[in-house]
Amino acid sequence: MLELALGSVVSLWLLFGLVTGIALAIVVLVGVIFSRDLNRGITTSITETVLERMADKKEVFMANFEKELKRRGLIPRIPLEKNVDLIYRDFFNEVRVYVVAEGPHLRLGYRVSATTEAVALGVILLVPLVIGSFVLFALAILRRTNTQQMLNQAAQSAAILSRD
Question: Of the CATH numbers 3.30.310, 2.60.40, 3.30.1490, 1.10.287, which one belongs to the domain with range 36-128?
Answer without folding.
Answer: 3.30.310
